Write a sequence for this structure.
């Protein structure tokens, strides 16, 4: 019987390979944040939105669409969301383009089928796990007069608990670098900062001289075309820059109750980490033969503080 001799160097290499394989397979490994909780969006929320009156706040003349956490930038089914930044002279609005298209499509369907008491269950939702909730898709963020407002739509069991809060426009201490790159056909400059517990890298274009970007990001001498955190968990990347007339709508659906950023932030984290425990909801698992009232999911928020 021959005994294979393994040198210390080879042993270290094999151990390293084993560790790398374990990390790649580990559910706690921090990859791009997906929709991995048990939270779903309420169908009734979409129905109320589609049937309700949309109030236009103002008209934007520029719209930038962003792929959010795309596994494949060419395949929208792998995106968590397609966000849209609408820029008007006196305000900006960041919301979900996927959700807006879905609401419009459902509204048109209902208008064409007035006698129907039901509507298509699949509807027109797009992206990764389209009927599941994540706060970055189901929040509308507006900025006006140096004030940011987040309108947070909650998932199914908290459908009547939609919240909003205001805060001063966040300040980003960007350090502008010398590197350049092309994003969505625009020549961009690199910038970096540390904000609310994370390091971020942004690519902005001076060709569009506005100090805005996706979600809450801004404060650079040009439109932010791409931004990601240093751990690679969150990425927003521009896929279209459009000129035209784009109405900015007031939030619709359930009424929104005033809260604080801290309350909304903690609730959103809890809903992602353990939806059943947070809502007091449960589900009967046929395979296990028992009711599930708690199920944890690994989750890392964009804002860590």
């Amino acid at each position: 019987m021959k005994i294979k001799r393994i040198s210390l160097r080879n042993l270290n290499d094999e151990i390293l390979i084993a560790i790398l394989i374990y990390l790649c397979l580990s559910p706690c490994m921090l990859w791009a944040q997906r929709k991995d909780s048990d939270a779903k969006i309420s169908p009734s929320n979409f129905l109320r939105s589609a049937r309700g009156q949309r109030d236009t706040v103002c008209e934007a003349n520029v719209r930038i669409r962003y792929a959010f956490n795309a596994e494949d930038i060419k395949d929208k089914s792998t995106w968590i969301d397609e966000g849209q930044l609408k820029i008007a002279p006196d305000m900006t609005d960041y919301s979900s383009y996927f959700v807006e298209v879905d609401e419009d499509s459902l509204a048109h369907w209902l208008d064409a089928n007035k006698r129907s008491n039901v509507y298509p269950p699949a509807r027109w939702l797009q992206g990764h796990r389209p009927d599941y909730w994540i706060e970055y898709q189901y929040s509308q963020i507006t900025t006006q007069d140096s004030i940011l407002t987040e309108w947070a739509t909650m998932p199914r069991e908290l459908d009547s608990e939609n919240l909003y809060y205001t805060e001063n426009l966040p300040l980003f201490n960007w350090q502008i670098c010398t590197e350049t790159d092309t994003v969505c056909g625009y020549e961009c400059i690199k910038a970096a900062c540390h904000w609310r517990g994370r390091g971020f890298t942004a690519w902005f274009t001076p060709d569009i001289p506005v100090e805005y970007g996706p979600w809450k990001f801004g404060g650079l001498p040009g439109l932010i075309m791409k931004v990601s955190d240093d751990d690679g968990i969150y990425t927003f990347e521009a896929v279209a820059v459009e000129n035209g007339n784009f109405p900015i709508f007031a939030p619709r659906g359930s009424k929104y109750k005033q809260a604080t950023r801290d309350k909304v932030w903690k609730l959103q984290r809890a809903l992602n980490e353990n939806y059943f425990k947070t809502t007091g909801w449960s589900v009967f698992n046929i395979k296990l033969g028992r009711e599930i009232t708690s199920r944890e999911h690994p989750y890392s928020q964009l804002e860590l503080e």
